[in-house]
Structures are given as C-alpha cells and as structure tokens.
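Course assignment 3, question 2. Fill in each field.
Student: A.L.
Task: Predict the tertiary structure for the chain below.
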Amino acid sequence: MMLARLWCWLAGHKIYVLQEFSAFSRRICCKRCPGDWAQNDDVRAVIPWNDEVADIHRRHGHQVLQRTAKRRFE
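Answer field:
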C-alpha cells in the first residue's frame, strides 16, 4: 500500500468516476491507491471523501455505493 501511495505521489493518481450524483457532482477514486474524493464542478472543489460527505449525499436522496476494492492495479 505504501508503494502505491508513493507511486501516486510521484506519477499522479489514476482517477476514475465511482459514482455520479448529478451533472456537477461525483465521487472519484484512484485505481492505484486508496484515494477517494468528492468532486463538485459548481464550486470547482475536490475534497477527501469521508462519512460526513457520504451523509450529505444520503440526506439529498442519493444511494452511496461502498468502494469494494481499495486499490486496483492495471
């Protein structure tokens, strides 16, 4: 896991969209490391995904998916 984090620090994350909540809001993850973020285009923000962010999306009627694999190698 530390090697994956180091690789991401050196080469950058391999981002993919795990879940879209609207045209402007989504949950993104890294394929290499356990990185998990919330992205909002309206305010141009990317913040770490945590329980508080998940609760906000649940309160707005979205089903929040569980990330099954913390990392995937390609």
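Instructor remarks: Residues 2-59 form one domain. The chain has one domain: 2-59.
Grade: pending
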